[in-house]
Amino acid sequence: xxxxxxxxxxxSLSPFIYNTAFAFYKMDERYGAWETTRENLTERFNELKSxxxxxxxxxxxxxxxxxxxxxxxxxxxxAVNAANLIIKKNDQWIAFNTDGIGFRHFLEYEHxxxxxxxxxxxxxxxxxxxxxxxxxxxxxxxxxITNRTRANAELLIGFFNHxxxxxxxxxxxxxxxxxxxxPCNLVASNSDxxxxxxxxxxSNTNPGFxxxxxxxxxxxxxxxxESFYMWTKKELPxxxxxxxxxxx
Length: 248
What we know:
Rossmann fold, 2 domains, about 35% helix, six-stranded mixed sheet, about 20% strand
């Protein structure tokens, strides 16, 4: 059995994705969801381990906290100081991060070119770290970081060794691509200076932006595809992505 923990969790599409994939491959597996706060994460983790789960996804706001509970941290999670996936291997729980590589595969699939582009990222949490890490490994021109707590934006920049392409001077900057890496909704006034918007929230709809707009379904699917392959060595059917986009 597999599952996901976070808060809130009742909106999660992860059970739909994985249970659909298990049915597609006629696998006798189930995927559940458990509302879990930072305060009861340790208790929930112990409960799910005792229940025999083999792997657990971790979402907001637990992606950093989970690192304190695992036996080993994979380089993918170390690179961004956060994990969205933990897997049991040889009685050891190992933390991974598939958000970053999932984001990169989403960009490739949707033909979103970030090379030599100026990117504005709203947010400085775990998802922002994963996205920024990938962007820095692509030849982007500049990444503007903004966050309601300026100190956290500065911490993110410091985490990536003050790469000269990173700045927290957001202001009224115009960029090629705006990425909302927070749980908050965008409004049209946030977006009218940018050619393309990527919103990591998959329940969000276009706030009235006239350019290219993507919500978080792509990031959700492609990070899930990485996880599913790690579990099963099978590809998550791309038809599930189409089903996600057509869901009302």
